[in-house]
Amino acid sequence: MNTDTCDACRAAVRYAIVGGAATAFDRDPHSHGDHTIHVHPTKRHAIAVKLRPNQIPGARRAGQSLYQLHRRSCTKALSSRRR
What we know:
Blueprint: E1 2-5, E2 12-18, E3 21-26, E4 35-39, E5 46-50, H1 56-61, H2 77-80
Antiparallel strand pairs: 1-2, 2-3, 4-5
């Protein structure tokens, strides 16, 4: 999985494809995460899948790592947004 840094806060992030666009996620799994991240078997890039609220407990029980969007934890997210 691709690891980089956030342009706004310089925190370590991981990029994954969501809906055709590269999206930043916190690098490490998070207790409030609602996305799973998997590597595409042939293209070798990370793909994130958003889970519905009723799927999250089952994913945790199955031992899946859940990630949250970085914009939810970015300390500078509001200051770097365009208006």
